[in-house]
What does this fold into?
Amino acid sequence: MVHARPLPAPELPSTATVEPAIPRQPSKIAGASIGKAADDPPPAPVPAPDVPPPQTPPDRMASPPVQPADPIKPRTVTASIHPGPAVSLDDETDAGLSGSPSSLTLRLKHDSGESSSDRLTRDATVVVEGLDPLVHSQWWYSVDGGPWQDGVGDTIPDTAFRAEGQRHVDVEAADAMGQVTDRGSLSVELDRTPPDPQRHWVRLEGASGQFVNELGSPDPLGAYQLVRDATVMIGPLPQDVRWNYAIRPGAADDSAARQEGQGGEIPHAAFQPGANELSIAFRDLAGNATDTMHLHHLYLNPPVV
It folds into this structure.
C-alpha cells in the first residue's frame, strides 16, 4: 500500500513592520537657504497699498451734467429779457442791456419827427451799429418780446413793426459757437396815420364872391375867386398838427417853394396881383402828411382905396 507524501505548506510573505520616514531637517549651505531655519526672524509685514475710495459714476451723481449750448441757433431757449427793459424816450442815447462785454447801438434810419432825437417816426426802420463779421456770425431781433427773428445785413425793416404806438426792439449777436456776446435795444414811438384835414381849418377872408378866369375876366365858371384882400386864415389846429403852403403866381409857373406856416394865417403880402394858386398841406409830429392838399385859386386885384 503506497501512501502519498503530504505536500509542504506554501510560504506566506512576512509581515515586517515598516518604520515611518523621519523628516529631514533643513540644512544650511553657504550662499543659499534651503527651507527655513528654526532661528530665522519672522518676515516684516507688508503694508497694504493705498486704494482710493470708489468714485460715484457720473450717471449716478445727484445733479445731471450741464448740457452744451446749441451751436447753431440758441433761440429755442429764451436767453434775453422779454419784454426788454423800459426805456424813456427822453434819453439822449440808445440803451443796451447790461451784462454784455459791449453793447450794440440801435438807431432809427429815418427819424421823420420834428426832432432827430425824439424817436417819434412814421418809418421804424432800425440800423444796428456794432456788428462785426469777424466776431459775430449771426444775430437776431425781437419786437415787443415776441419771437426771435433772424437778422439780415445791419437793419431791421419797418415791416417788422406792425402796430403803431410805443414799440421796443431787442437785438442779440452771437459768435461762431452760438454764444451771445453783444446786445442792444431801442424804444420808439411809431405813427403812420396822417392828420385828417377839416374844411374849417382854412378860411379865406376878403373874397368878393365873384369868379373870374386866369386873366381876371368875370366868368361864372371861372376857377379863380376875385379877392381884394387875400388873407387866408388857418386853424385852429390840433396841437400835433403842422402846416406849410406854396403860392404859385400864375397857372404856367411851377417853381413855387413851400413855406413853413407861421401863426394862423397867410398874409396878404404873400400874394402877387393877378392869378395865384395856393396849396396848403398838413402833417403831424411824426412827419405824416395829408394825401391831398387844400387848393385855392385866387385872383388878386388891388384893394379899393
